[in-house]
Task: inverse folding
């Protein structure tokens, strides 16, 4: 009669605010959850909508949260996971008993408690406050020896009245953000460094589908640098699901620019050439923006002057999620998302060859554009050739 | 047979734990002892002077740190040249940092063996004991140090001096006589033996770096890698008998590649002195980066490297520069190294690949 089984309640934050697209977002998230637990689902795991939450339950009984969480905790758009019990009882007297039983197993070290009720089933005869009061009163009198403290309780018992009734105390945080792909597509200029993978992660978390492009310069760059980028893309794919890495052979372009451009201006021109090729990819894949790991002032080519001198190389907006982020904060994020160790491998990427020790840090945009205009008729075919011979690699 | 000694070593058709008291253990122990005999014969030392290790790096560490630990209460000076392998230099830096010894890392073999007579004498007043560590064959250039004459001259000038030879690149490739040499490191995978096996000959007192079940006279405890050691012994035995023939074959291969200097401008062979291993050829191709060339060679089916692979990821002054070759030469250097498995046909094909790649790269970089 007081049957209750362990389930996972999945919370998603912001998407519930977007009235128009809500159903679409929910569908994407449900899909992502189902896809990620597919390998352990023997027909026993069900993922259902539950009035502003998702419910993951095991039709055979208690859910094995430890097996499921590692597979879904990376999904963008999920703000948290509650380790709940679910009951079909609705009578307040039954709920008091079930709540007290659940609570008594989790309150060992606590001195004070409080009940928080959410009632999304507005037909339920009692208000949230009345439910909290009833269950709180029952627990208080049940001899566990805990005080009620509504301001700074040691422990909170959450009660949610939805299609079913849920109790939980512990929750894990999710990645937050928006469902992957719900905000359009962007081409990510991915190098082997610390910044670009973090930029890709941040844009992905805001719902942008990531199309990473890597510029490889064999034989000047080790094949291990390519492997490093593959590994970075694989880390990103933990969050995003399958992604396709585009590798562009940049050697010819680089050699051409090295011959044509003064050493201290070379970086700017290399970056503009990369942006041009990235734009071709964006056009082909119907993306809406480019994403880079630029952080203001980190190196000479990232002064605001230098960033400004990049803009006219592309008709797409350039998103720079790290523009105003300090290096240490970038590193901390890289550590958290698992890209730090990979980025720390010592192989050079193409940005570091042929480049002057002291590149220009205040380029004059009109001058850059004028020089580029002079060589563009010879550069353009090389860019097109590089783009058309690009290799695509599906990474999961 | 029922094998109920899986806690000692789980059952294997090759060898089980040589310390186990049963028949299979005895079989393993005998195999280990036979292998030890093979190395004692090859190196002309006593069986109990051989300590099996996991390879050259461990042997060098055990020799240098083990010796420094044993003599840490006396005044000890350790001498080595700055282009030795990191598995020699790093242990020396370690014992220096720990305060067990003074370290002198500077060139001394350039004009071997003449003035070296005075080298330890000059320092003998400063330290009670001197340990000199020198490689038999330089892993970068293949230059051979006459370690036998060196040891002799050092001992004549200072009988208390101790000589350690890193034989990693020379073992089973160059003849060696350990009469005046006190410690000698060797490794299996540099001469077609398995990776993870090596040895140290120690005729002087050293202390172990690890403690445990007392194997290898207590100097290298841990269940012995009997399968690896036996395989190494088999290989070494075969190679030892054909040192001269193999050297001649390697020299022919080396000469083919060396002749590139006649066909391309600005190519140099990085060697000093007359005695150079036929197994190693270090060449510089001015104007191009050695690493870039290696990537291109690799794409064309030729594997070479820039010197010690163990060191290729660190950013330090390249050993060639320390040896006195200029920066441009050090930067554009590639090391080709050979074995008895290579053929003259391979050498001719490789020569073509190298010439093409160098031309291609020089064109790319506008030289």
Result:
């Amino acid at each position: 009669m007081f049957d209750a089984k362990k389930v996972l309640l999945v919370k998603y934050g912001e998407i519930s605010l977007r009235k128009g697209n809500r159903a679409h977002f929910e569908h994407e998230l449900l899909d992502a959850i189902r896809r990620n637990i597919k390998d352990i689902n023997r027909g026993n795991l069900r993922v259902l909508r539950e009035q502003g939450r998702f419910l993951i339950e095991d039709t055979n009984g208690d859910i094995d949260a430890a097996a499921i969480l590692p597979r879904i905790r990376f999904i963008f758009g999920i703000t948290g996971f509650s380790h709940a019990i679910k009951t079909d009882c609705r009578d307040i007297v039954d709920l008091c008993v079930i709540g007290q039983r659940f609570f008594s197993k989790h309150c060992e070290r606590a001195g004070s408690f409080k009940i928080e009720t959410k009632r999304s089933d507005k037909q339920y005869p009692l208000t949230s406050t009345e439910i909290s009061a009833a269950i709180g009163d029952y627990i208080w009198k049940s001899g566990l020896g805990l005080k009620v403290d509504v301001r700074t309780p040691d422990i909170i018992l959450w009660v949610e009245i939805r299609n079913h009734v849920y109790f939980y105390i512990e929750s894990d945080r999710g990645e937050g953000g928006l469902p992957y792909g719900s905000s359009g597509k962007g081409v990510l200029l991915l190098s082997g460094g610390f910044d670009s993978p973090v930029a890709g992660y941040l844009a992905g978390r805001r719902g942008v589908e990531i199309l990473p492009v890597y510029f490889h310069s064999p034989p000047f760059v080790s094949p291990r640098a390519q492997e490093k980028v593959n590994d970075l893309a694989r880390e990103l794919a933990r969050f995003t699901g399958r992604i396709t890495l585009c590798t562009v052979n940049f050697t010819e372009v680089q050699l051409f620019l090295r011959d044509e451009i003064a050493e201290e201006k070379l970086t700017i021109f290399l970056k503009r050439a990369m942006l041009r090729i990235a734009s071709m990819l964006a056009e082909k894949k119907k993306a809406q923006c480019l994403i880079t790991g630029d952080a203001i002032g980190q190196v000479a080519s990232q002064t605001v002057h230098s960033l400004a001198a990049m803009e006219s190389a592309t008709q797409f907006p350039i998103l720079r999620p790290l523009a105003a982020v300090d290096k240490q904060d970038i590193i901390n994020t890289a550590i958290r998302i698992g890209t730090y160790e990979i980025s720390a491998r010592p192989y050079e990427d193409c940005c570091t060859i042929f480049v002057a020790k002291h590149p220009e840090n205040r380029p004059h945009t009109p001058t850059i554009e004028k020089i580029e205009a002079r060589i563009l008729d010879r550069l353009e075919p090389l860019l097109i050739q590089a783009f058309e011979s690009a290799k695509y690699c599906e990474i999961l | 047979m029922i094998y109920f000694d899986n806690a000692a070593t789980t059952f294997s058709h090759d060898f089980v734990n040589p310390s186990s008291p049963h028949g299979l253990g005895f079989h393993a122990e005998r195999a280990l002892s036979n292998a030890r005999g093979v190395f004692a014969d090859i190196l002309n030392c006593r069986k109990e002077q051989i300590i099996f290790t996991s390879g050259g790096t461990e042997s060098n560490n055990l020799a240098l740190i083990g010796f420094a630990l044993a003599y840490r209460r006396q005044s000890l000076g350790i001498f080595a040249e700055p282009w030795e392998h990191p598995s020699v230099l790093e242990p020396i830096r370690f014992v220096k940092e720990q305060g067990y010894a003074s370290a002198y890392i500077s060139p001394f073999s350039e004009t071997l063996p003449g003035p070296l007579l005075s080298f330890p004498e000059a320092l003998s007043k400063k330290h009670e004991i001197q340990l000199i560590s020198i490689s038999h064959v330089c892993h970068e250039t293949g230059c051979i140090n006459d370690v036998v004459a060196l040891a002799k001259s050092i001992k004549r000038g200072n009988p208390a001096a101790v000589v350690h030879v890193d034989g990693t690149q020379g073992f089973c490739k160059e003849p060696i006589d350990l009469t005046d040499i006190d410690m000698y490191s060797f490794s299996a995978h540099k001469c077609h033996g398995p990776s993870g096996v090596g040895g140290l000959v120690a005729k002087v007192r050293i202390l172990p770096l690890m403690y445990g079940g007392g194997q290898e006279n207590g100097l290298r405890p841990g269940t012995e890698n009997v399968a690896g050691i036996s395989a190494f012994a088999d290989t070494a035995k075969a190679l030892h008998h054909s040192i001269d023939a193999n050297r001649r074959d390697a020299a022919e291969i080396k000469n083919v590649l060396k002749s590139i200097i006649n066909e391309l401008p600005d190519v140099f062979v990085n060697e000093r002195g007359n005695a150079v291993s036929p197994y190693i050829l270090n060449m510089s191709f001015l104007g191009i980066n050695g690493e870039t060339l290696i990537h291109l060679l690799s794409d064309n089916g030729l594997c070479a490297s820039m010197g010690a692979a163990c060191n290729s990821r660190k950013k330090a002054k390249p050993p060639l520069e320390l040896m006195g070759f200029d920066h441009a030469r050090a930067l554009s250097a590639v090391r080709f190294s050979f074995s008895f498995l290579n053929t003259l046909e391979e050498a001719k094909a490789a020569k073509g690949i190298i010439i093409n790649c160098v031309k291609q790269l020089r064109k790319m970089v506008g030289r």
